[in-house]
Amino acid sequence: MNPLTLELVNFRAIPFAHIDLTDVTIAAICGRNGAGKSSGFTMAPRFALFGDVIEGVSMDDLVKRGTQDMAVTFTFEHQGSTYRTIRTRSLKGNGKSTLEFQQQINDRWESKSAEKIKDTEAVIRSLLNLDDETFTASSMIMQGKANEFTAKSAGKRKEILQQILGLNIYERLQEAARHKAAALHIEIEKAKDKLAEHDARLLLKPSRIELIENLTRESDDMKSFILVKEAALVQQEEKIRILQTNAEKSAELKSQVASILRELAPLQLEKESLLAKLGRAEKILSREAEIVTNTDEFYLAKEQIAALEARLPDQERLASELEHMELSILHLKNELDPLDHRIRNLQQLLQSRVLFMAKADEYKAACIQLTQTEQLAEQWDSIEKEILDIRAKVSVEQTRINTTKSLLESEIRMLQTKTSMLADSNCIDVTKAACLFLSDAQDAKQLLDSKNEEFSMLDHSLLNKLNESLNSLNESQQKIGYDFAAHRALKITIEELRPMAEEASQMQAKEELLVSLQAQSTRLIDQVGELEQKQHNTQNELRTLLEALAPLPVLRLRVENLQAWANLKEQIGAAREARQSSTARIAAIDSEVQAKEERKQTIEEEISLLQLNLLSLDSEVALLPTFKRDLQQLHDRQHKLIEQLGGLKIELASLEKDEQSRLQLSNELEPKAKKWSRYQTLIRAFGRDGIPALIIENAVPQLERIANEILGKMSKGKHFIRFETQRELKSRDGVQETLDIIIGDWTSERPYETFSGGEQLRIDYAIRFALAELLAQRAGSKVEWLTIDEGLGSQDAEHRGLVLESIKAVADRFKKVLVITHIEEAQAVFEQQIYFENTDAAVRVNVA
Fold first, then answer.
1. What are the coiled-coil residue ranges (predicted)?
2. DSSP output for 736-785
């Protein structure tokens, strides 16, 4: 796993930052305290990958104060593919979090997220084969927590090592094996119980076979009795059916009589209606002459009304025209009022024309002067940019020289200490001393002269050259003669004059506008006069039309009164036809009624004959339940026999299945017993004394070897580390599990806790580097970067240099090593620096 980019929005104190780590290998993270270095390089990746995992800090506390929304985008390379996580947190409402996980496929990002955040986090952990604790232990040494491993008790260290090595998986495997063995044991016991149940039930099989044979014979005899009874029942039902048919025929004939009676009733009603219709027709025909006279008067009045109504549209038209003219006059007068107001305003403005033209001339002169001043400002800014660049280079060069001096002074002091041993050795000829310590002192004496010469010959030429360039640029800048205050005052003057200059440029256009508005006002006044004259003429024409339409209401009332006589005239022809048709229909009804009466008498005679045959129906029907009851009793007995046979056959089939099931259970029992025995073996293998113990015993020597390689570089071979994994019990025989840290030097061995703070820090670093590399080698997902947060403050200058050299020495074990430090001498040691620079809107991150 190798980080590529980090993008932070409102994360803790960082409003915005984009960090590109693509080309970074080993770098110092620089910036003032509180700039966000630790937040960006330790908290942000953990939050993006694993969420709410930062101890003592809630997700809401990660949102920058004064804002509502926060987001972290982390892009990384893993196993040849590029991935990114985008995690957000919003404080709006009840608060909301989102997590998007994507993989880059060609030039597009493809989502790998699950439906829920916790499921997406599980996808990330599965891909990386890491949780937050293991990720942090393998890739980060947090500020003030370098001794997080070594400061623990010996027993706790071993537990942590087991977690780092992922040995807790064997506890889960052992628990899973126990569950499997317990489940198999339950299955075996259940199988044994079922075998006993099958054996008990199979003892009933012979008696059930004999009972089935006896019931089968009894069922066959019962079928013969049922057939005899069913034939007698059929004969009785046929006799009753014939009698019921006659009864149905009698009922049908009675229905026909009722139908004839129903048919006679409407004929009688129709005859009465026809007689009434005949009377109305005779009445209309008796007043025929009076109806014709009033109808002629009706049509004459309608003609007069039509002539007058034809002139009604003219009335509506004239009224509409008058309304339209009134609105037009009102609209024109409404246009005249604002037009006159604009004309008066323009006349007042044009009276100040001379003043505006003078201000326009002042504006042009000021603009020319501003152009010249801005040219001087550009020259000043160009030189200022060069000065800032050279000052940055001076700072870097000064830091390099100071760091080199510091390292050389540390080496010289150490060499002088070793050289002083020659004077205190009391040897006759110190040049021929052969002991190990004096030999080392002689080597130091030879090296001391070369280091003193190197210190005196430090190259300051580049620094001097940069200072000369800086002085030259300062002189050139002062010669320009640029005045910032005058520049600013000139801009203010131009802004004040610009509105009046713009007004002056528009004077000619406003004179032309005044002439146009005055002409428009005259045209509107003329239009108002023309419309008022036309309105007067239309009013006279409407008054004449209303006098002509005055008789119309009287004529409409007369037509309404005569309408009934016109309607009667239309009914004269129909009355003649009604008189003729009604007379003929009344004669036909009289003939049809006589025929129906004769048919009714014939049907009633046939009903009397059928009633005589139906006297025996009730007695025959009364015998039918006896026949059915006897037959039902036989059927019930037959059904009971069938149910008993069915139940016995089902029981026999179940017993046969029991035989098969018993055979199957017997065959399955032996493999399950063997499988249960294998799970018992796995339970012992996954226990503390099994595979985990072998892994620990193999891992500790590897951890010890890596830690000694790193500590040897930091202490120049003075110290070495040894781990003890078991300790003898004092109170009784036996050993206890432990992980003691024993540190040795040239003289003896002693526990880690007895060393000084600076020595402990170097030991902490050596063990933490070794743990990170061990985990990277053993984990299924290798973390290929290391972050060290403010871990050099407790070291003196000499040992700080050794620690820095050790960090650089282990850098080739990782693709990226990032060291967060505020110590300038330490920053200068690294070829790459990442600067955190705060602004109001963002944190600018520069990789140099």
1. 174-201, 305-335, 500-548, 586-620
2. EEEEEEEEE-SS-EEEGGGS-HHHHHHHHHHHHHHHHHHHHHHSSS---E
Using N-to-C axis directions, what is the helix angle for 288-309 and 552-570, rounded to 10°?
140
Q: Give the integer Cα–Cα distance in Å for 114 and 434.
A: 72
Which residues of the chain carry a pLDDT beneath 70?
A: 53, 138, 143-148, 163-168, 421-440, 613-614, 688-689, 734, 746, 775-782, 791, 793-795, 798-799, 840-843, 848
What is the CATH code of the structural domain delimited by 1-129+780-848? Answer: 3.40.50.300
Strand pairing category for 735-744 and 96-105: unpaired
User: Which residues, at least 6 apart from 531, have a Cβ–Cβ distance to it below 8 Å?
Assistant: 325, 328, 329, 332
Exposure string for 733-768, b = 16+ CB within 10 A, e = fewer: eeeeebbbbebeeeeeeeebeebeeebbbbbbbbbb
pLDDT digits (tens, 9 = 90+) for 369-410: 888 888 888 888 888 888 888 888 888 888 888 888 877 887
Amino acid letter at 339?
Answer: L
Query: Max Cα separation, the chain?
Result: 180
- Report long-range pairs for 217-222 (Cβ below 8 Å, ≥24 apart): 218/641, 219/638, 219/641, 219/642, 219/645, 222/634, 222/637, 222/638, 222/641
If one looks up domain 150-166+688-779 in CATH, what number appears?
Answer: 3.40.50.300
Under 8 Å between Cβ of 801 and 19? no
For 27, counting Cβ atoms within 10 Å of its Cβ (0-12 exposed, 13-18 middle, 19+ buried), the class is buried
Q: Can you tell me which residue has the tokens 């073996």?
A: 681
CA distance 369 to 713: 68
Q: Are 771 and 703 in contact (CB under 8 A)?
A: yes
DSSP per residue over 274-340, as a string? HHHHHHHHHHHHHTHHHHHHHHHHHHHHHHHHHHHHTTHHHHHHHHHHHHHHHHHHHHHHHHHHHHH
Tokens, residue 119: 């499921």
Q: 407 exposed, middle or buried (CB, 10 Å; 0-12, 13-18, 19+)?
A: buried
d(CA 644, CA 647): 5
Domain boundaries, the chain: 1-129+780-848, 150-166+688-779, 202-311+563-666
Burial 188-214 (b: 16+ CB within 10 A, else e): beebeeeeeebeeeeeeeeeeeeeeee
Cβ count within 10 A of residue 90? 17
Unique residue bearing structure tokens 């229909």: 585
Determine the 3-state secondary structure of 436 from DSSP: helix
Question: Any bridge partners for residue 17, and if so which?
Answer: 8
| Model-wide pTM > 0.70 | no
Angle subtended at Cα 264 by Cα 259 and Cα 270, rounded to the nearest 5 degrees: 135
**Residue 506 CB contacts under 8 Å (≥ 6 apart), including other chains:** none
3-state secondary structure (DSSP) of residue 506? coil
pLDDT at 782: 64
Query: What is the rounded CA–CA span in Å between residue 285 and residue 572?
Result: 6
Chain-centroid distance, C-alpha 21:
29
Interior CA angle at 801 toward 828 and 440, to 5°?
A: 140
425 contacts: CB under 8 Å, gap ≥ 6: 433, 438, 441
Cβ-proximal residues to 397 (8 Å cutoff; 6+ apart), any chain:
462, 463, 466
Contacts of 480 (CB under 8 A, 6+ apart): 376, 379, 380, 383
Q: What angle do CA 26, 32, 34 make, to 5 degrees?
A: 105
Helix (H, G, I), strand (E, B) or coil at 103: strand
42 DSSP assignment: I
DSSP 8-state symbol, 64? P
Would you state the pLDDT for residue 72? 94
Q: Answer whether 1-129+780-848 and 150-166+688-779 agree in fold.
A: yes
- Number of Cβ within a 10 Å radius of residue 250: 18
